[in-house]
Amino acid sequence: MTDAVSGTPSPEERLILLLVGAVGAGKGTQATILSREFGLPHLASGNLFRAAMAAGTRLGEEAREHMERGELVPDEITIGMFIEELAKPHAARGAILDGFPRTVGQARALDDTLASHGERIRRVIYIEVPADELVRRVAGRWICPTCGTPYHETADPPRVAGICDKDGTPLRQRDDDRPEVVRARLARQVPPMLEVVDHYERAGIVDRLDGTQPIDAVTQDILSHVGSEARS
Ligand code: AMP
Hints:
The protein is of the alpha/beta class. Helix content is 48%, strand content 13%. It has nine helices and seven strands; from the N terminus they run αβαβαααβαβαββαβα.
């Protein structure tokens, strides 16, 4: 990590924000907006796994079997992959973290790595949405297989139905967005996610937001919490 940040703003100035929320809570949508707003990369562990699967790497194949069952990919695989990504030059000024850490083990590994460089997560934004609403939302969700931009049939449609606004790629539904896999993802992934929220509550850096509000209102809530951090 030291090499990756050399010659760039000092580590203390890296703005690292973490978005936490269950599948369908709107993390990806908000991370895309914040990434534009702050000029920081959006690092999504799910997107990294999907890219590894598309590239046919060993890591991708190992991740696939867990993802298809709606399970978390084991920490041994996930931690190394994500921390390596965070050390790349594109994250030298900071990053919006989406989907990592998702277990307390991942959170501790991330905290330790950051602390060894005098860094820390600045804020954790927890986007809360009730489970029924999550399943309903995910059923209408489409994603660009090229750039990973998420859309929603009604809440956030692309300009042309079925086509990515950014690169014109036909959109597709993710295999793991099928209702039975979504229910499995919620059952397996919400408890460890709540432990991650507790872990950061202890550090006093969590902001809880009502994720049932319209997208713009959620963004405004987030900006009101982290805006001053971004400017500091
Ligand atoms: P997402 O796109 O964030 O919904 O992630 C899709 C799938 O990738 C999840 O259902 C998990 O199987 C896997 N995954 C993503 N991030 C993590 C993580 N931090 N730890 C373990 N598994 C993950």
